[in-house]
Amino acid sequence: MPERKITTKERVALFINRMFFLTLGAFIAAFALECFLVPNNIIDGGVVGISMITSYLTKLNLGLLVVILNIPFLCFAFTKMGKYFVFQTLYAVTMLAIGVNLFQPYHITDDLLLATVFGGIILGTGVGIVLKSEGSLDGTEIMSLVLSKKFGLSVGEIIMAFNVFIYFGAGLVFGWNKAMYSVLTYFIAYRVIDIVLEGLNSSKSVRIISDKAYEIGQELIDKFEISVTYLKGIGGYSKQEKVLIYCVVSRLELTKVKEVVKEFDTKAFMSIGDIHETYGSRMGKYIDKI
Fold first, then answer.
1. What stretch of H or E contains 274?
2. Per-residue pLDDT at 286
3. What is the tens place of the pLDDT at every residue in 247-274?
4. C-beta of residue 246 within 8 angstroms of C-beta of residue 267
5. In sequence order, what DSSP letters do the residues of 205-257 get, joined into one string?
6. DSSP β-bridge partners for residue 289
7. C-alpha–C-alpha distance, residues 28 and 134, integer Å
8. In angstroms, rounded to a whole number, what is the distance separating the alpha carbons of residues 66 and 280?
9. Torsion-angle region of residue 229: left (phi > 0), alpha (psi -120 to 50) or beta?
10. Which pTM was predicted?
11. Please, are residues 130 and 92 in contact by the beta-carbon 8 Å criterion?
12. Which of 29, 114, 171, 214 is the most buried (most CB within 10 A)?
């Protein structure tokens, strides 16, 4: 059966939705910068961090610097990552610049620890929303993606190398205490980015090997409406055919799965792993046996 094509109306709705979340994420990040970090001379990493140091030294507008310093990275990304990503990133960066100017009059706290923690949490939330909407606020991340493929280093290693120099510069300009608070903000922000991208309540993938696989699977389907897939395999020692149950469940459902398995087969083998994203309908609706 051929796949249904996306209509023009659906494309427009998807575009509007994406632009909304790019705007929202950029404004949240701008709020964190101007209301918590900039007034306390606590900087972010990457291009934004460079812009904050440059703005402090030259008194130039921070929003303008964020846009200007990101342009070379966006030009580089145009041929490497596609025009749609570059457009969405340019839009998000522009919204960040506008947001920075809108929130500039506001200053929430002078407490360095509070500014670090809450600034990092809010900044990470904003950046995470932008990344989830297929955009970016930092050109160094784009450069890192390209350099990682060229030199065989991880993206994280390259970003950290950039940031070492940026935070060293922050130490020289603002003092080493502020530089250490900045590093703490960076780690808080990136942990929050992970939470935004992956979710707090990640699903679990469960694999069960049992001689009573069909009984267990049927109980999960009938009693808890958990979709399961049966996979066939060969035991490494016994050389006998085995049936493996595969299912994706929430944390709450995981306890029920364990109880059912123990009820039918105390010798069953289970392996459980984290799943941060799933797409489409539950697998059991499409695949009954493989």
1. strand 269-275
2. 42
3. 988 777 888 888 889 989 888 899 988 7
4. no
5. EEEEE-TTHHHHHHHHHHHH----EEEEEE-TTT--EEEEEEEEE-HHHHHHH
6. 230
7. 16
8. 38
9. beta
10. 0.73
11. yes
12. 29
